[in-house]
Design brief:
Strand content: 15-25%
Shape: globular
Enzyme class: oxidoreductase
Number of helices: 7
Helix content: 25-40%
Distance between the termini: 44 Å
Protein name: aminocyclopropanecarboxylate oxidase
Keywords: Ethylene biosynthesis, Iron, Metal-binding, Oxidoreductase, Vitamin C
Mean pLDDT: 95
Oligomer: single chain
Low-confidence stretches: none
GO molecular function: 1-aminocyclopropane-1-carboxylate oxidase activity; L-ascorbic acid binding; metal ion binding
InterPro entries: DIOX_N, IPNS-like_FE2OG_OXY, IPNS-like_sf, Oxoglu/Fe-dep_dioxygenase_dom, Plant_2OG-oxidoreductases
């Protein structure tokens, strides 16, 4: 098995740029995941985000999680649990409208730090999208424009904790799925592992690394790249020791963005019978919500079937 791809972004401005771009290209084509180091986000900011997130869980979330576990009888499970995840979460919306001031139980200092962190993650996401465009031979800004819709992209953060689990063989932290959206940037715990991706029929650990950001591609990137890059199934397994922190930021299309394969990536032979459908992103999300933990291909096929009866104009 090849080693999980780790990309040193500092090398993009030196003599190793070409080799680094090739590494990103290979990761997108063959993994759907990679990990970046020496990115633009300060280590001090990341350390503060981690400290405050872990403290917030302990002070505000832990008791709620324990109540949920008790109410569902999870610790007494005798067979595999397939309808609930062993995770404690809350969601922050940043764009098009922020909800960060409305989230209860957040200290003002934590709100401000998460707002600052979101701004840095958004800049990094847009930088990475342009690197993908460069590798694909698309004009700079193509993916950002494709995501834009009327009011810009949808951008939000899922803050999760995966507490110690007494029965990791029976309960997943997060069941296997592909991500529906565009590009996901994950700041994960560097001490407690758990994230795995499916590659060549085997589950592969995504290595925890201090101050790294894990990048994974969602279904919309697969569609826009006409399958050159694929979204990949991943999951979180639980551990008996350690509380794993996960801060996943989703840079997705706007709700009314029209998603379809980029014309430069579609061969003439495919034009009459395209491999991927055309759809409005919010319509895809409505379908995804009910079938998140199922295979992605039937989702694409459902929209292809709809498109054959009710074609959508590109412009």
């Amino acid at each position: 098995m090849d080693k999980f791809p780790i990309v040193d972004m500092a090398k993009l401005s030196g003599q190793e740029r070409s080799a680094t771009m090739e590494k990103i290209k290979d990761a997108c084509e063959n993994w759907g995941f990679f990990e970046v180091v020496n990115h633009s986000i300060s280590h001090k900011l990341m350390d503060t985000v981690e400290r405050m997130t872990k403290q917030h869980y302990k002070n505000r979330m832990e008791h709620k999680f324990k109540e949920m576990v008790a109410s569902k009888g999870l610790e007494a499970a005798q067979s595999e649990i397939n309808d609930v995840d062993w995770e404690s979460t809350f969601f922050l919306c940043h764009r098009p409208v922020s909800n960060i001031s409305a989230i209860p139980d957040l200290d003002d200092e934590y709100r401000n730090i998460m707002k600052e962190f979101a701004g840095e993650i958004e800049k990094l996401a847009e930088q990475l999208l342009d690197l993908l465009c460069e590798n694909l031979g698309l004009e700079k800004g193509y993916l950002k424009k494709a995501f834009y819709g009327t009011n810009g992209p949808t951008f939000g953060t899922k803050v999760s904790n995966y507490p110690p689990c007494p029965k990791p063989e029976l309960i997943k932290g997060l069941r296997a799925h592909t991500d529906a959206g565009g590009i996901v940037l994950l700041f994960q715990d560097d001490k407690v592992s758990g994230l795995q991706l499916l590659k060549d029929g085997q589950w592969v650990d995504v290595p925890p690394m201090k101050h790294s950001i894990v990048v994974n591609l969602g279904d919309q990137i697969e569609v826009i790249t006409n399958g050159k890059y694929k979204s990949v199934k991943h999951r979180v397994i639980t551990q008996t020791d350690g509380n794993r922190m996960s801060i996943a930021s989703f840079y997705n299309p706007g709700g009314d963005a029209l998603i379809y394969p980029a014309p430069p990536l579609v061969a003439k032979s495919e034009e009459e019978c395209p491999a991927y459908p055309k759809f409005v992103f919010e319509e895809y999300m409505k379908l995804y919500v009910g079938v998140k933990f199922q295979e992605k291909e039937p989702r694409f096929e459902a929209f292809k079937a709809m498109q054959s009866t009710s074609p959508i104009a590109t412009s």
